[in-house]
Design a protein that fits this description.
The chain has 44 helices and 43 strands.
């Protein structure tokens, strides 16, 4: 179907009278080549010039000249289109726009309209159909009277009665309905049954009623002291009057569908009393309490386990009665008796059914098909009767029995007949043809021998045996010929086979199953353990020193607990251990591991033969007839005997380093050394991926870095070659760009003033190329043989002298400077006579002055703390180990890999112990990130090209890998952007010089540590109570297993706040500390462990005393258990407040309360100033189907303004998982200015951008995502993206085309696609010729008209 329809002709087919004044309707759309379909329209989508009070004022059924615009919503729906505009030709207004909420109307109304049984349309249809059926009944009755047949009269009367009933499905509610009691379930529940006529067929249903709903003498019996249904003398067959509602549940053999809301008991023959007026009579199950539905499901589950099959229907539907004419009677009497015996009784039923359909063809609504449920019940009853009364017959039928979709069918393999019912199978087993075929089959099987006979005569038996063999915890028992299955691990009993198969696949069973073996994991690990030897393929486990040729023994070894203990983090393919599961997972997806796997697969496909076998075969197949001497024979014999010894020696030696070793461990340690890796690189030009992954960089030898980068570059080119495409993919291009950036960062390439010129430090040559293909050209040179040979020379020189390349270059520069100084001292003070030209007294040239080497860092005195800023800058400028950036505004220490800091902070760093220690283990991460354009503020960082807010270390590392950052890092105006952002103002405590990421954290720190604690005033207490987010909630003493999110983490402490969303946009705030937290990879501090917005599962208890003025209204609970990640690890143990306080410590607990009280006071003050605060915000926890407008889009995110509230949300475009199974939040693309619909979750209310988009669309709606399904990585990425690019969302104004200047001569026909095409002429204000370079406008009007419009540069749209 087309996605959109524009100006399409349509025909109005329905105005839906679900109310007196209809609002909705349907149109029929004829699509050329596709057929007809339907579209849904609302009153709001009608475009008319007339005044419209009702839809019928403008349009009606089959209205002519009707046109529509429509969009496709769901191609699988009966009503796939939604009409955005409907008008009658000549009666439409210009500028009409469709309503924004029309999609919500389609979602709400179309499902109800499809199942309509209550509107005026349906009632009118019922009345018309009833009249039609009355006329048909009268006509049929007239035919009956004429035939004067009693049987035909009964049939017609029955047909007339049935034809008046057109119920198509189960009634949604039963009111004042009499049923029969089937059985009692314990003391509180009972089951009753009744009948409904559906599609002219009688169907039985069951109703569940309980003691709480039974009335006696107009009162509930539970109020009279009765505690059991047995006390009311309720027995099977008694009448009961009920009110009940239909509850949609999974199909069950009982047909238990209704839940009673009121019941009155009566005896078998007596009619039950009427229900009292106050008895509950609901219209749908949606009005039921959740607890009643849960009880219904629990009772249904127990009923199905105890009684899998329902009782036999005491009132089965009567078979159709047909009139038998004399001709039919004669035909039956003239039949051959043998034919009558061979025909099944069901053949008669089929003939009767066929005759009945022919006889009742006058009625289009009579359908005599067999009902699925009735057939199932009938076959089940027949099967149970055979099991009890004819065990020998069932023994033979059991071999033929197959269960399909809840029905038993029978396949006869001897005769090749399939799909028989039990009645047909019973007739077939007794036939002579079956007995002959069975005897022949048994004779053939007996001739094949005992070894070739089948173990299982029936496929179901084989399936059952395989199922029991694979699930050792399942046992089987047989009762009354029926097999039941039980699970020992889960204590589940009396399950049918289908239920047992579902049970073993459930998560509850998998957690309890002690003998569960994942076959896929076994096969995968067995493949990884393969090894090719002289004998062929064996299975080798290095940690366990185990080897076998049998895959069965290998799998038994894998199951061994000792093997599981030694190898949870071991890769059998690469023969290496990982530090943790995450590292092992990353390794399995690495290129090195994949290449090892490919090599192993290739070896296993073509296993090598043993060397001695090869030598023997060569000697046998030799065609040489020359006699060999005894010495030669002896030498060859010795050669055949020696290979094993030589191979053992080669295994424990290194041919590249000429070294031998005692054992494999010593050799493995040697292969990990840097010297061995360099020698292998020199000899082969290759570096193994394992060596590259484990290579340790000390930050001194640049050749080590270059070797690794060359290896990575070759991997990229090999992967590009495997793709086999004409142009490289975007991923390959991005990885090439990243590699070249790392080459520049390592100082191997040096950018010159001209963009297209780069100096190669290794080759000492200047490279020049084209700007567009510069990355590709540089990479080709970097991986070329010429560059590699130069690198080999330098590596050999380092090995020979023991001096690395950087040190050698420094020594060479000092030597050159010394030689230049000596040459200057020995040079003459006067110039040549020829050049003097008569000047006898020439002064010495300034260029010939003595070159004095710069002083070392130790020779420059350090200024005092009280020195002026100019003195500090002058001092730093003299030090050779300090980099000065951006006009001496920022400085860095390359020795310690610091970021950019002001002069005072770098002076303090130079005199500190951290500068003396250099790169410590805690600072090693700095060697692997680019901090050249990063401002450092204590433990926080700010990227100057992106003008981010202050980031933590993990956020900075994420930011530096983002596509938008890489784009801005190569911007031509990067330096000017950085200069405009200086000076950087960062929050810092004036008392203790501590650094903070936000002004809120600084205010909390100062109030808690440097100011005297002040109690809240009366006005502040009232404000705190009125602003409390839980002011309308009734708070319990404790809360268990509640879901929420992290709201705030306090500075300089391991204390934070959780927020639990409640109904009505209210929240409960809970204090928690690091000791209560349980999550994977917990770090040293709470701020490093969690991020605001993490989903949590929490237990909490009310703090005492809980009447502190103002404080308790906002912070009432303290967490006793907080779980992030695996919710199965969450503690369910209740903890009292006093036990919790004692475990934390009274002093520490009081300090935590003091910190939270100070934070609450600071946020109250900021709230009074109109600033956003975490504790006193008013944002909803989740938004669904919200309209928004795209205001910003870059390579990392899309910023969307929520129109209803003015809040902001971001859609993350970086490659990160939103849930464990998906990283996609939309299947569409959006541009700035487009209106979209979003689902989003609140992450951090204190940030200017508060929401994370979990679904975004224009045409294709997406399901909402619950917070507990989010990954922690998407929350981390949210904070990084918001702090990087979305801290000032209000600066991006809405798109306004009035800001775009268009020449008046071409405004009528100029398209926006021509912007930035072909010309360098810039736009200037009207009447100005500045910076344009053209003369005054003195041309004639004829000369003003050009042949084609002038081009434009890109115009920035005033954002």
């Amino acid at each position: 179907l087309p996605a959109k329809l524009s100006s399409q002709g349509a025909c109005v087919k329905l105005l839906w009278f679900d109310r007196p004044s209809p609002k909705y309707g349907l149109v029929k759309i004829d699509i050329e080549g596709k057929g007809s379909t339907y579209g849904f329209f609302t009153k709001k989508s009608i475009n008319t010039k007339q005044f419209m009070t009702e839809v019928s004022d403008v349009i009606w059924k089959n209205k002519k000249y009707t046109m529509i615009n429509a969009e496709l919503v769901d191609a699988n729906s009966k009503i796939p289109y939604i009409v955005t505009q409907l008008w009658v030709i000549g009666d439409n207004r210009q500028g009409f726009s469709p309503p924004p909420d029309i999609l919500n109307d389609w979602k709400k109304v179309v499902p109800v309209m499809s199942t309509d049984q209550f509107s005026l349309n349906y009632r009118a249809y019922e009345e018309i159909e009833r009249r039609f059926q009355d006329e048909c009944s009268k006509l049929a009755q007239k035919c009956i009277d004429e035939s004067k047949s009693v049987a035909s009269g009964k049939t017609t009367e029955n047909s007339s009665a049935q034809s008046q009933n057109h119920q198509k499905t189960w009634k949604p509610a039963l009111k004042d309905t009499i049923c029969k009691v089937e059985r009692l379930l314990g003391s509180s529940y009972g089951i009753a049954y009744g009948y409904q006529i559906i599609l002219n067929e009688q169907k039985r249903y069951f109703v569940l009623f309980d003691l709480c709903d039974v009335y006696a003498d107009k009162k509930l019996v539970v109020h009279t002291g009765i505690k059991s249904l047995k006390q009311l003398n309720i027995t099977k067959g008694d009448s009961v009057r009920v009110n009940a509602v239909l509850h949609d549940t999974e199909a069950n053999s009982w047909g238990l569908r209704y839940i009673a809301t009121a019941a009155v008991h009566g005896k078998k023959e007596a009619t039950p009393a009427s229900l009292p007026a106050e008895a509950s009579a609901l219209d749908s199950s949606a009005e039921l309490k959740p607890g009643k539905i849960d009880n219904f499901k629990a009772v249904l589950g127990q009923l199905m386990k105890k009684f899998p099959e329902p009782p036999v229907d005491p009132n089965p539907p009567p078979p159709p009665v047909v009139s038998q004419t004399s001709e039919a009677s004669d035909n039956s009497n003239n039949k051959n008796p043998s034919e009558m015996r061979s025909s099944s009784k069901y053949s008669k039923d089929r003939k009767d059914s066929s005759y009945n359909r022919q006889n009742n063809s006058s009625s289009r609504y009579q359908d005599n098909r067999r009902n699925f449920t009735a057939m199932n019940m009938k076959n089940t009853a027949k099967r149970q009767d055979i099991i009890k009364n004819k065990p020998e017959l069932y023994k033979e039928l059991k071999l033929m029995e197959i269960l399909r979709s809840g029905l038993y069918f029978y396949d006869c393999k001897a005769c090749g007949i399939q799909g028989m019912t039990i009645d047909d199978a019973e007739d077939h087993v007794g036939s002579e043809d079956h007995k002959k075929s069975k005897a022949q089959r048994e004779a053939v099987l007996s001739q094949q021998g005992s070894n070739e006979t089948r173990r299982f005569q029936d496929r179901s038996d084989a399936d059952e045996a395989l199922f029991l063999n694979e699930n050792k915890s399942i046992s089987v028992e047989e009762r009354n010929g029926v097999k039941y299955y039980a699970c020992a691990d889960c204590d589940a009993k009396r399950m049918p086979l289908a239920s047992a198969k579902k049970h073993v696949m459930s998560q509850a069973h998998k957690k309890r199953d002690k003998n569960r073996i994942d076959r896929a994991v076994l096969d995968s690990e067995s493949r990884d353990m393969r090894k090719v030897t002289k004998k062929g393929i064996v299975y080798f486990c290095q940690p366990c020193a185990f080897q076998t040729e049998s895959i069965i023994k290998n799998k038994e070894h894998i199951i061994d607990p000792q093997h599981k203990l030694l190898t949870p983090l071991f890769c059998h393919v690469c023969k290496m251990f990982s530090h943790n599961k995450n590292q092992l997972s990353d390794h399995r997806f690495s290129i090195s591991h994949k290449k090892k796997m490919l090599e192993l697969e290739e070896q296993c496909r073509n296993p090598i033969k043993a060397k001695n076998n090869t030598v023997k075969e060569a000697a046998k197949n030799s065609d040489s007839s020359e006699p060999k001497s005894k010495d030669k024979d002896r030498k060859e014999t010795q050669k055949e005997d020696k290979p094993e010894d030589e191979e053992e020696k080669n295994k424990l030696s290194c041919k590249y380093c000429n070294s031998s070793f005692k054992d494999e461990n010593e050799k493995r340690d040697h292969e990990d050394t840097a010297s061995h890796i360099r020698r292998v690189f020199l000899a082969t030009g290759q570096m193994s991926r394992s060596a590259m992954d484990g290579f340790s960089l000390d930050g001194k030898k640049g050749t080590d870095v270059e070797m690794i980068l060359i290896r990575k570059g070759k991997d990229i080119e090999e992967e590009a070659a495997r793709e086999g495409t004409l142009h490289a993919s975007q991923d390959i291009k991005q990885r090439r760009e990243e590699l070249i950036n790392k080459v520049f960062d390592a100082g191997l390439f040096i950018q010159q003033e001209v963009k297209t010129k780069v100096k190669c430090r290794t080759c000492k040559t200047m490279l020049s190329g084209k700007e567009k293909s510069m990355t590709r050209q540089l990479l080709m040179h970097f991986l070329s043989d010429k560059h590699f040979n130069k690198l080999k020379v330098q590596i050999k020189a380092e090995a020979a002298t023991g001096i690395d390349r950087d040190e050698a270059e420094r020594i060479q520069e000092e030597e050159d400077a010394r030689l230049a100084a000596e040459a200057a001292l020995n040079a003459p003070l006067h110039g040549d006579e020829d050049t003097a030209e008569g000047n006898d007294n020439l002064e010495p040239d300034a260029s010939a002055s003595v070159v004095v080497p710069p002083p070392s860092a130790e020779q420059v005195p350090v200024p005092d703390e009280s020195a002026s800023i100019d003195d500090i800058i002058a001092y730093l400028s003299k030090r050779p180990d300090v980099n000065s950036m951006y006009g001496d505004k920022l400085f860095s220490c390359p020795q310690c890999c610091t970021g950019l800091v002001p002069a005072q902070q770098l002076r303090a760093h130079i005199v500190s112990e951290s500068h003396e220690k250099g790169i410590t283990p805690e600072r090693e991460w700095r060697q692997f990130v680019d901090l050249d354009d990063v401002f450092e503020h204590g433990q926080y960082f700010k990227c100057l090209p992106c003008n981010t807010s202050l980031l933590m270390q993990s956020e900075l590392e994420q930011h530096l890998e983002m596509g938008e950052h890489m784009h801005r890092s190569i911007d031509e105006n990067k330096n000017q952007t950085i200069l405009n952002s200086l000076p950087v103002i960062a929050p810092e405590c004036s008392s203790c010089k501590s650094c903070f990421a936000s002004q809120l954290d600084l205010s909390i720190h100062e109030r808690h540590n440097h100011k005297k604690e002040i109690e809240f005033t009366a006005d502040q207490v009232e404000n705190l109570k009125s602003l409390s987010q839980s002011r309308n909630l009734t708070l319990k003493p404790s809360i268990m297993s509640a879901r929420g999110r992290v709201l705030q983490v306090f500075p300089d402490s391991n204390l934070g706040i959780l927020q639990l969303p409640q109904e009505g946009n209210q929240y409960i705030n809970v204090l928690f500390d690091l000791s209560r937290l349980k999550m994977p990879k917990t770090k040293r501090t709470l701020a490093e462990s969690v991020r605001v917005g993490y989903p949590v599962l929490v237990n909490c208890v009310a703090m005492e005393p809980n009447d502190t003025a103002g404080y308790s209204a906002n912070l009432y609970y303290y967490a006793s258990a907080v779980t992030i990640g695996d919710e199965d690890e969450h503690s369910l143990m209740p903890v009292s407040f006093h036990s919790l306080r004692d475990s934390i410590g009274i002093t520490a607990f009081e300090d935590n309360q003091k910190m939270s009280r100070n934070a609450l006071g600071v946020q109250l003050e900021q709230c009074a100033q109109g600033l956003q605060t975490p504790l006193l915000h008013t944002f909803p926890d989740a938004l669904e189907n919200e309209a928004g407008l795209v205001v910003l889009k870059n390579q990392s995110c899309v910023l969307i303004k929520i129109l209803s509230s003015g809040a902001y949300a971001i859609q993350i475009l970086e490659n990160v998982l939103v849930t464990e199974i998906s990283h996609d939040t939309s299947s569409e693309t959006f541009e700035v200015g487009q209106s979209v619909v979003i689902n989003c979750l609140l992450v951090d209310p204190s940030l200017p951008t508060q929401y994370l988009v979990t679904g975004c669309w224009i045409s294709f709606p997406r399901e909402s995502i619950q917070r507990e399904m989010l990954t922690l990585a998407i929350v981390d990425m949210f904070h990084t993206v918001v702090k990087s690019f979305c801290m000032e969302p209000d600066m991006f104004a809405l798109l306004d085309f009035s800001n775009i200047v268009i020449p008046g001569d071409f405004s009528g026909g100029l398209g926006f696609d021509d912007i930035a095409v072909g010309s360098d002429i810039a736009l200037a204000p009207h009447g100005s010729n500045d910076d344009i370079g053209i003369a005054d406008d003195t041309t004639t009007p004829e000369e003003k008209v050009p042949e084609e419009p002038l081009g434009f540069k890109k115009i920035k749209l005033g954002f």
